Amino acid sequence: MKNLLSRNIADYPDGIVLPVDKPYRWTSADLVRKIKWAACRHFGKKNLKVGHAGTLDPLATGILLVCIGPATRRAEELQASAKQYHAGVCFGAVTPSYDLEKPVDRICPLDGVTEESLRAALPSFVGEQMQVAPLFSAKSVDGVRAYETARRLLREARERGEAFDPGDVLQSSRINIYGLELLRFDEHFEAPEPVEAGQGNGRINVADVRGVPLKHALVQVDCSKGTYIRALARDLGEALGSGAFLGSLCRTRNGGYDISEALSLDEAMSLFSKP
Question: Does any domain span residue 3?
Answer without folding.
Answer: no
